[in-house]
TrEMBL record:
InterPro entries for this protein: Centromere_Cenp-M, P-loop_NTPase
Protein name (Swiss-Prot/TrEMBL): Centromere protein M
Key words, A-Z: Centromere, Chromosome, Nucleus
GO CC field: chromosome, centromeric region; nucleus
Keyword field contains Transcription: no
Location in or out of the cell: Chromosome, Centromere; Nucleus
Signal peptide start and end residues: none
UniProt-listed Pfam families: CENP-M
Domain of life: Eukaryota
GN (gene name): Cenpm
Length: 131
């Protein structure tokens, strides 16, 4: 399911499936996308930030057109203890790889990978980004 911002409308709460992963997409060319994410994260329950949230930064192949302060993006990941992933969705091979990576993260967050919890996985992702 896709949403352009949070909170989600409450009138359909009873029909909404369980949410296993939230991916906040930040377009590097749009200051609005970062501002929208910064406003939306406040509507997410704090427990979700324990391995069930990540930030996906798109457009990284176009750094010349960057409108987003990358320090602000890194700070979001740091403040909300969530991994920051980067991709260029305009390249088909990268689209497929990104989709596969997000699917694997979703499988872990949903509890479908034995021996790996979303909390452990999130912790590993943050450590590898810090190295």
């Amino acid at each position: 399911h896709l949403a352009t911002s949070l909170p989600l409308p409450s009138e359909r709460d009873h029909l909404r499936p369980r949410i296993d992963l939230i991916v906040f997409m930040i377009d590097i060319k749009s200051k609005y996308s970062l501002k929208n994410i910064e406003a939306s994260v406040h509507h997410v329950d704090a427990n979700f930030f324990l391995g069930k949230v990540c930030f996906l930064v798109t457009g990284v192949g176009r750094v010349n057109y960057c409108s987003v302060d990358m320090n602000a993006v890194w700070k979001l990941g740091e403040v909300y203890c969530s991994p920051v992933l980067f991709c260029e969705l305009e390249l088909e091979g990268v689209q497929v790889a990104t989709a596969q990576r997000l699917l694997r993260v979703l499988q872990i967050c949903a509890g479908h990978v034995p021996g790996v919890s979303s909390l452990t996985f999130g912790s590993l992702m943050r450590r590898s980004a810090d190295d």
